[in-house]
Hints:
The structure holds 2 protein chains of 2 kinds.
Chain A: H1 8-35, H2 46-77, H3 84-106, H4 120-143, H5 148-163, H6 174-209, H7 213-234, H8 248-258, H9 260-276, H10 284-307, H11 311-317, H12 321-350, H13 358-393, H14 397-402, H15 405-430, H16 441-445
Helix pairs in contact in A: 1-2, 1-3, 1-15, 2-3, 2-4, 2-12, 3-4, 4-5, 5-6, 6-7, 6-9, 6-10, 6-12, 7-8, 7-9, 9-10, 10-12, 10-13, 12-13, 13-15
Chain B: H1 7-40, H2 48-59, E1 67-68, E2 71-72, H3 82-85, H4 92-104, H5 123-137
Antiparallel strand pairs in B: 1-2
Helix pairs in contact in B: 2-5, 4-5
The site of one protoporphyrin IX containing FE (HEM) has 24 residues of chain A, from helix 6, helix 10 and helix 12.
InterPro entries (chain B): Cyt_c-like_dom, Cyt_c-like_dom_sf
Keywords (chain B): Heme, Iron, Membrane, Metal-binding, Transmembrane, Transmembrane helix
Organism (chain B): Pseudooceanicola marinus
Amino acid sequence: MKYKTQKVAYAYFIVAMGLFAIQVLGGLLAGWIYVSPNTLSELLPFNVIRMIHTNALIVWLLLGFFGAAYYLVPEESEREIFSVKLAYIQLAILVVGTLGAVGSYLVGIHGGREFLEQPLWVKFGILVAAVIFLVNVSLTFLAGRKTAITNILMMGLWLLCLLWVFAFINPDNLSLDKMYWWFVVHLWVEATWELVMAAILGFLMLKLTGVDREVIEKWLYIIVATALFSGILGTGHHFYWIGTPGYWQWVGSIFSTFEVVPFFAMMSFAFLMVWKGRKNHPNKAALLWSLGSSTVAFFGAGVWGFLHTLHGVNYYTHGTQITAAHGHLSFYGAYVALNLAMFSYAMPLLRGRAPYNQVLNMASFWLMTGGMAFMTFTLTFAGTIQTHMQRIVGDYYMDVQDQLGLFYLMRFGSGVAVVLGAILFIYSMLVVRREVVKPGPVVKDATVPGE
Amino acid sequence: MSELLTKSRARNVFYGGSIFFVVVFVALTAQSHRHIVEQSTAGMPLTEEVALGKHVWERHSCINCHTLHGEGAYFAPELGNVMTRWGAQDDPELAYEILDGWMQAQPSGIEGRRQMPRFEITEEEMRALAEFLRWADQTDTQNWPPNDAG
Ligand code: HEM
Ligand code: HEM
Ligand SMILES: [Fe+2]
């Protein structure tokens, strides 16, 4: 840690990890209800649990991004953060908003647009927090050195906050509602968040491999160019069957196919930088998460996204368990793993100590990644059967679901692995204060001091 | 490549290209907006009642169990074509009666079957909800879903 105000990131990361725990526990409970449907059905119905699961996910990922920005903008800009106080106020607003949202969901007060169920006052709170954040990081950024990493990060953050405006636009016309809803959902994960991902990945590669900044930054511009060139019109892959014109079937199919490119490029970039690396950084866990993130993002978003993105395929798979399979692996690879990479890298520095307990951390990587991969496979099998029986044969939805019990049981099992992995991750980050497994001489000697 | 594509060139391509695609996207969505209002959803007027029905749908967060035009949760059946499935698409009174009967019968309490909660919904709201579902069903969704199973 070079600048003392970077420390605010610490608070963001802690809160993010807390919500991560809530998110996966909520997911596990939702997965259990698929296995044993009468569980809590009168007390806490499935829809409320699902809301908590998805909202906790989105909020903790955003908190992770905000924390990452507060960590890396000072270092890149070579400046202290404009105002530490504002950063904490922003966090406080978000914490109050989150607790308020969860509380009101539990008593049955919520909106009804998927992922945007927050009560209006919480939505406004998020808007205020976003404005504070933008002011705070922008003033830091403008006063200091500008790099491609911060250029791209700032652009991603600005655009994603601006898109939040569409969370307030809810026309009475259902088809219009759906069209504008995707401006938040798709243009977040397949456009603006990709810029944030590329910037953070670039920063991590810079620090962990010691490759020339020039090389990294050129790569970044190419990656984000392919992301936006494909992702913006790629929104069309959600405009096939919601009342939008038929030409989206071609626009969406063609451009969203190209969305695979930036994910492939990020994966290639990460491996190439490690290959060319000039530094043997001691934080192997952060490196594992970085490489893992870009790889799983390529599979989850790229491969599983392409699987159902052509309109001829999507006509049959739309809104089945195939979608859930893709949603899980893509979010996990691109954004969960990326955030955990950043935490793994920054937490030891924020706490001013060596990166202890990398072995536990790396074990948690394999446990979580293995669990998410298995979950994706079971849901893909379930979705394939569902697509065939329901969409092709024409069997009734509930009759088809009755045939899928085994897959849902296996999904629950993989969920247990993910929860254990998440707990192990948090434990290795926060609890253990000494090296549990002693490193051998190779790792020990390789320690070019971390920066 | 390294000579032809310098960092600043890559950056300019990124900014210029992005602006281009944003402009195209905005133009196409403006056209789609008009298409939705004037054509694909124009088969039935968007009355106050339909709008109320949409609010009822949202207040109870039906979307976090069901899909509607294929979007939402995958825990319960597709409802974008439910009125067709019930044979009630052209009969508002029948639509209301079947829907009301269904909602009153929840939760089924059958062991091992997914449960739908019981919602407090007035008669006016229930009629509006039925109209909303009929309104959604008449949308031109490019022939999706492939069959009545949804
Ligand atoms: C990290 C990036 C991505 C994330 C986090 C992500 C996440 C998601 C999620 C959560 C949904 C479900 C939305 C809903 O509730 O209806 C979805 C749908 C979809 N995604 Fe992605 N996605 C990503 C990238 C991609 C890419 C690159 C492609 C195409 C190559 C793609 C293709 C699709 C398609 C076609 C659907 C609609 C599925 C349906 O018709 O039911 N996604 N995505
Ligand atoms: C313990 C592990 C997990 C379990 C058992 C689990 C289970 C579930 C269940 C049952 C649903 C509802 C699906 C439906 O609508 O029928 C769901 C939705 C969702 N979960 Fe998870 N989940 C877990 C972890 C995660 C993780 C780690 C992520 C992020 C990477 C995630 C992201 C999502 C998303 C984005 C949706 C909405 C999907 C969509 O609309 O397509 N879940 N999850
Ligand atoms: Fe998308």
